[in-house]
Amino acid sequence: MSGDMHQRHHVLTRMLASRLLRWALLALPACVVTRVAPLQAQQPAATAGVRGTVVDAVTGRPVAGAVVQALHSDTMVARTLSDERGRFLISVAPVSAVRVRRIGYRPADAALTPPVGEVTIRLTPLVTLLQPVAVRANARCTTGERVAVAHAVYEQVREALLAEIVTRETRSARSRLVRYRRPIDDPARPMVTQEVVVDSLHDEAGTFRAARTPALFVQRGFATEPTGDGAGERAFLGPDTELLSHDLFRQTWCLDLAERDKDAPTLVGIRFTPATRRPAIVDIDGRLWVDTATRTLQRIEYTYLNLSDAEKSVAPGGRIEFRTMPNGAVFVERWTLRVAQPVGLRAALSVFRGSAVSRARPLDTGGEVAAVQWADGSSWRGSLPSLRLVARTDSGAPQRGIMLGLAGTSYAARTDSAGVAVLEDVLPGRYRVVVLDSVLHRVDITLPTPLRVDVARGPEVTHTVVAPTRASFVKNVCGVDTAVQRLRRYDAQADSLAEVTIEPGTTAVVLMRVVDRTGRPLSGVPVFDAVTLAGAPPLTTPRAPRSRSDADGRLVSCFAYAPGETIQVLAQPQGGEVQGLVHTLTSLLEAVVLVVRR
Predict the structure, then answer these.
(1) Cα(14)–Cα(145) distance, rounded to whole angstroms?
(2) Other CB atoms within 10 A of residue 319 CB
(3) Cα atoms in the Cβ-side hemisphere of radius 13 Å centred on 170
C-alpha cells in the first residue's frame, strides 16, 4: 500500500471509530466514571463466607444479574448472581476477596478483612460499550480500531454469557419446555406438520446445551459423523455459552463489527469468522447481538461452513435468543436450528458411506421456554397461546371425558362436563386434532378428526370439533353386522361343540401389535388368533395366518369373538420361533401387544 493510500486508510478508520463513539454516546445515558481499586498484592485473612449488595456507583440503585466470584488466594471458590435488589450471599469458606462483573460495567474487586459483616460493591457504568481496547487476538486476524471496538463489545458480551452460565449453576427453577422437529418437503409451501414434545424440567442444566466441550468444537467442528446404526444422517451441533465465552473462541475466530440493523438502532453486532480455513470439519460463522440501551445480550445467529452444495442449498444455520429477568437470571428463551436432511434411501446411504449428499431437504429443529418458576418465587411466562377445543356429537351434545390432542405432539387434555379441553403453550404451526382413546393408545392408534387448526402467537383461540368414537372406529374398520351370529364353541362339560349366540353389535374386535423387546414395531410378521377352547391344550403351531402386521406392526382382527371368551394369539417372525400370548376379552374393543424375540 502506498504512503498516501495508507494515510487515507488510517484517516477513514479513525473517522469510523469516532462516528461509532458519537452514536453510542447519544444512544446511552450519561454516566460518571469512577475508579475501582484493584486487589491488594498481599491477600488479607480469609472470612467465612460473604453477604453483600451490588449497586450502581453513579445512581446508587441496585444492580441485578451481576456475577459475584468468591476468591481465596486468587482462586475462585464459588460464584453467584445478585438478585433484583442487588443482594448476594456466598456461604463457602474461606473467602479473601470478591470479584464482581456485569455487562455494561467495569469489573470491581474488593479485598475482605474480617470481620466483614455485609459489603457493598459499587460498579462503575461504562460510558459506552464501544470504547476500543487492546486486542489479544489470533495473529491471522486483521487489526484496527474497528476490530478493537468489536473486542470491547465482546468483552461485555462475555459478561452476559457468564451470567447465563451462573444462572444455570445457582438458580433452582422449574421450567416448561417445548421442543419441535419440522421436516420441510417443499420450502415454497407453508409447514403443514411438526412433531412437538412438551417437557417439565426441574433443576436441569439449562435449556439449550451443546454436546461438545469448547476444545472438542475447535478440534472436531460442529457436526458428528454417522454412527453406523443405519440412520445415515450426521448430527449438526450449535454453539453454546460455554464455547462463546471461552478463551478458545477468541483464539479460533476473528472478530469484527457487524453491519447495523436498521430496524433496531440500539443493537450492536459482533461478526465472528474462522481465523483459519478448516475444510475437513464443519465450521461456523455468525453474529452476536447486544442491546446497548438495556445492556443485555439479545441473540446469536450462525451459519455452517464447509458443506456440500446440496447441504448449502437449504441455508443451514441457527439462532439462539436470550432473556434477562429482573431478578438477574439470564436464560436461553428460544433456539432454532436448520440442517440438511438427505432425501431418499440413496441419499441417506451416501452420507452413511461418507460421500457427498446429492439431494437434501430442510429440517428445522428447536425449542422454546414456555414458563419458568424460580425458587425465590419469581416467575415468567412466554408468548405461546392456548388452544380451546369444544367437542360435540353429531347432534350438538357435549362429548364429556374424552381425551383430545394434536397429532404428532404431546399436547393432550380431557374434556370437562361442557365438552371443553384446553391445550396450553401451543407452539405456532398447523396441527390436526385427534382423539386419544385409552384402548387404541396401547397399539399406537389415534382417531383423526376432520379439524385442522393453524396456531399463531396471540390470545387463546377456540375451535369446535365433532370427535369420532370407538364405535365409529370399529364400524369403519370391520363394518356393521346386523344379523344375529350363531357360533360353535367347545363345551368342556358336555365334551362336545355347543352353539353360542352373539347379538348384533356385540362382536368383540381385537387390535394387535407386534414389537421386539425394545418396543420397535415389526412388520410382515404372520399372526394367527383363535379362541382357546376350555380343556384343550394350547396351540403350539400356527395355522394359516389371519393376517400379517403392517409397517407399524399393527393388525386388526374382526373375527366373531364374544366378550368373556379367551383367545390365543400366535406369531412367528421369519427365522424365529413360535411365540404367543393368552388374553381374555373384557370389552367389545381389545388391544394386545405381542412382544417377540427374533
Answers:
(1) 7
(2) 17
(3) 25
Which is higher by pLDDT, 381 or 483? 381
How far apart are the C-alpha atoms of 289 and 161, rounded to whole Å? 12
Angle, CA 202 vertex, CA 201 and CA 207 arms, to 5°: 55
Residues facing residue 403 across a β-bridge:
414
- Return the bridge partners of 334, or none: 321, 368
How wide is the angle at C-alpha 191 spanned by C-alphas 190 and 193, nearest 5°?
A: 145
What is the four-CA torsion angle of 24, 25, 27, 28, rounded to 10 degrees? 110
**How far is it, in rounded angstroms, from Cα 329 to Cα 572?**
58
Residue 28 DSSP one-character state = S
- Cell for 361? 431437504
- pLDDT of 122: 96
Q: Supply the pLDDT for residue 350.
A: 42
Neighbours of 19 (CB within 10 A): 10
Which three cell numbers mark 258?
Answer: 457487524
DSSP string, 372-431: EEETTS-EEE-SPPPEEEEEE-TTS-B--S-EEEETTBS-EEE--TTSEEEE-SPPSEEE
Residue owning grid cell 486486542: 135
The pLDDT of 18-34, averaged and rounded, is 33
Q: Could you give the CA distance from residue 446 to residue 412 in angstroms, rounded to a whole number? A: 12
DSSP 564: T
Instruction: Specify which residues 110 forms β-bridges with.
Output: 98
| 8 A C-beta contact, residue 133 and residue 143 | no
What are the CB-based long-range contacts (under 8 Å, 24+) for 445-454?
445/511, 445/554, 446/405, 446/407, 447/472, 447/473, 448/407, 453/387, 454/429, 454/430
Q: What is the pLDDT of residue 4?
A: 42
Q: Which tens digit of pLDDT belongs to each residue from 351-403?
A: 434 444 557 788 899 999 999 998 888 899 999 999 999 999 988 999 999 99
Give me the helix-helix angle, 3-27 and 145-170, nearest 10°: 40
The proportion of the chain whose per-residue pLDDT surpasses 90, expressed as a percent, equals 39
Place of cell 456440500: 308
Bigger pLDDT: 201 vs 462: 462
pLDDT at residue 252, rounded to an integer: 94
445 close to 510: Cβ distance less than 8 angstroms? no
Mean pLDDT across 505-509:
75
Mean pLDDT of 469-478: 82
**pTM for this model (two decimals):** 0.77
